[in-house]
Design a protein that fits this description.
The structure holds two protein chains of two kinds.
Chain A (H helix, E strand, L loop, with lengths): L21 H26 L6 H23 L7 H22 L7 H21 L10 H17 L2 H4 E2 L2 E2 L2 E3 L2 E3 L1 H26 L1 E4 L2 E4 L5 H17 L2 H19 L2 H21 L1 H11 L10 H13 L22 H34 L3 H26 L16 H22 L22
Antiparallel strand pairs in A: 1-2, 3-4, 5-6
Chain B lengths: L2 H30 L28 E6 L6 E3 L5 E4 L6 E2 L10 E6 L2 E6 L6 E3 L2 E2 L4 E2 L6 E3 L2 E6 L1
Classes of the chains: A mainly alpha, B alpha+beta.
């Protein structure tokens, strides 16, 4: 290169069309499907020594799902990010394989993999529905307060229902009707992220500007702390009434990060951490179940016969897996209780080893990176905040769950997005990805040449920043 | 199953998984670098064609010659021009390599100066990285990320 100081790429050919990159997406999706089918074959060959006839049905179904999703994206969100869907496909596929593998390990418990495949299908139906109905993500901000209400109601339902309907393993966050169990918190998460984004876009100026300087940090005025306190109280209420550490942590974390993104003020993170510390201390001293969780976390082997059994088994599993894992179908991941949903991370870690688990985390990181990148390039502030909030929700949830599985954090009741067995989590996260796809389509779509509207009544209204 | 086959499965699958990540990273890389590496296009040098100097009158328009906004024209007045990704910039760039408040063009006595506002990826005036305010002559390309601008009379 002759000129070291200039970037030759800085000057793209004028009038160059923006590539839609749908071909890349199709190739990577094909790779993801191939990966899933290979894993499925390996599991069957390793465990039973022969391929099952159901494998063909599974393969066709799984391929059809992603072909459908790809075609819908190609038609209705042509400029969407090409990596979002393939990452989700790999994670969902790997989850299906692990669940199938755990099915084989314990044939008496019934097979959950076909059910999960059904949930994935429903999830993709939701994905398509969201892409079709939400043509412009900015319209969502109009329904912000309705969505807040929906989110709060969803969050509150399990708390008011009788324990026989809503309680599973001590956490009251389910609605169990006619054999189906739904975890409304997963849907509430998305509704609340949309609301937070719309609300913070409105209020970020006052939250960012009115401040006092204390110890080098700009702190907001007392009265502007209102929203944070409200969300904090809400999180505590979730903790008290649903006895679920995970949702509570998820809710508060998302809000703090979104307020930080909206205002660019580090002080909000400090305030958030302080409030979290206060809340955690309060919860630890007031509730037995939180205390039990923390004690188990600090020393799982001391409670090996009781509450620590699950984490201890998970740690044994990860240890057995070592660097390269026991191979798909070669380990004993079923030795961990509830490995299909809460502890799928440990099953992956045992069979694929550190390298495999790191790869899975990497796929999540790519997904999150694409989301955050969408947030960077999209033009409108609502889209920015929404994309950042949604991607952070995925990252945060993954961190909290894997932290629990590996003993880094106390155990929570969250599920690994896309990977774990669980209908509501899977379906809700497909909805989340649909929103990200929609925003990324808007972000990467080349600006249409501005044509003056014919009549004033046709002109779209627009918020002009003062 | 023979042990060797199982070992093959074990490492083969891990390899396949990482290959997927490698493929994904290639896409990320291609995106970051704006298309395939090696596709080199350059702005036709206009500095060589000064045209009529319009006897002493300064440049009148700012034209975007490359990048997503290529073809955009801004008529110059007395006001400074803010360039960046922020919504309140005069020229709002949709360029991943641009900062929110990237550069500013100011008019001082009929002459235009470009200043970098502490951007991450820098502003270039005709191969030279802009540190302090630099005088722009008409036709000199100003480069911000993938966008190139120039003043025209």
């Amino acid at each position: 290169m002759a000129g070291p100081s200039t970037d030759p790429r800085a000057a793209a050919a004028p009038g160059a069309t923006v590539p839609t990159r749908r071909g890349t997406e199709a190739l990577l999706l094909a790779f993801a499907v191939l990966l899933t089918l290979a894993a499925q074959c390996i599991v069957d060959l390793t465990v039973t020594g022969s391929l099952r006839p159901e494998l063909a049905t599974f393969g066709i179904w799984f391929t059809a799902l992603w072909t459908g999703a790809h075609l819908v994206v190609r038609r209705f969100a042509p400029y969407a990010d090409p990596l979002l869907l393939p990452c989700v496909a790999v994670l969902t596929g790997l989850g299906l394989v692990m669940i199938h593998r755990l099915d084989i390990a314990d044939p008496d418990a019934g097979s959950d993999a076909p059910v999960q495949l059904l949930w994935a299908t429903i999830g993709l139906v939701l994905f398509v529905a969201v892409l079709l109905t939400v043509r412009d993500h900015r319209l969502l901000s109009r329904y912000a307060y309705i969505l807040m209400l929906v989110g709060l109601v969803l969050l509150a339902i399990p708390a008011v229902l009788p324990a026989s309907i809503s309680e599973v393993y001590g956490a009251k966050l389910w609605i169990r009707v006619a054999g189906f169990s739904i975890q409304p918190g997963e849907f509430a998460k998305i509704c609340l992220v949309i609301f937070f984004a719309a609300y913070l876009v409105d209020k970020r100026d006052v939250l960012a500007l009115a401040s006092r300087k204390v110890m080098g940090l700009e702190f907001p005025r007392g009265r502007d702390l209102g929203p944070v306190i409200v969300v904090w109280v809400l999180s505590i209420l979730v903790l008290v009434f649903e006895r679920d550490l995970g949702s509570s942590l998820l809710l508060f974390g998302i809000f703090v990060v979104m307020i930080y993104v909206a205002t660019e003020r580090a002080s909000w993170v400090v305030i958030g951490l302080l409030m979290f510390a206060a809340g955690a201390t309060l919860a630890y001293n007031a509730f037995g179940h939180v205390q039990a969780r923390v004690d188990t976390w600090l020393d799982p082997f001391a409670y090996y016969d009781g509450s620590g059994y699950q984490v201890a088994q998970s740690l044994f599993g990860l240890g057995t897996g070592g660097l390269f894992g026991a191979g798909l179908g070669g380990g004993r991941p079923d030795a961990v209780p509830i490995a299909k949903s809460d502890f799928i991370g440990s099953a992956v870690g045992e069979e694929l080893g550190l390298f495999g688990l790191a790869a899975v985390i990497m796929v999540y990181l790519i997904l999150v990176e694409r989301g955050l990148r969408t947030s960077l390039i999209v033009r409108d502030p609502f889209g920015k905040l929404l994309a950042a909030g949604l991607s952070f929700a995925v990252a945060w949830q993954l961190f909290v769950v894997l932290g629990g599985v590996t003993g880094l954090l106390p155990l929570t009741g969250l599920t690994t997005p896309f990977l774990a067995y669980g209908g509501s989590s899977l379906v809700a996260n497909f909805g989340l990805v649909a929103l990200l796809v929609r925003i990324s389509d808007a972000a990467r779509r080349p600006a249409t040449p501005h044509v003056a509207p014919q009549r004033l009544t046709d002109a779209p209204t627009e918020v002009v920043q003062p | 199953m023979a042990e060797i086959v199982l070992q093959g499965f074990r490492f083969g699958f891990l390899l396949l998984l990482w290959l997927f990540i490698f493929a994904a990273f290639r896409v990320v890389r291609a995106d970051l670098l704006g298309g395939r590496a090696g596709r080199v296009a350059s702005v036709p040098p206009r500095a060589a064609a000064p045209g009529k100097k319009r006897n002493g009158k300064g440049p009148r328009t700012l034209v975007v010659t490359a990048g997503p906004l290529s073809g955009t024209k801004i008529t110059l007045g007395e006001q400074p021009i803010l360039i960046g990704r922020a919504d309140d910039s005069t020229l709002v760039l949709t360029d991943d390599f641009a900062s929110s408040r990237h550069a500013r063009l100011t008019n001082r006595g009929g002459q235009w100066y470009v200043e970098d506002l502490g951007s991450t990826n820098g502003t270039y005036l005709d191969q030279q990285r802009v540190q302090g305010p630099l005088l722009i002559s008409p036709g000199q390309p100003i480069r911000i990320g993938q966008t190139a601008l120039e003043l025209r009379s």
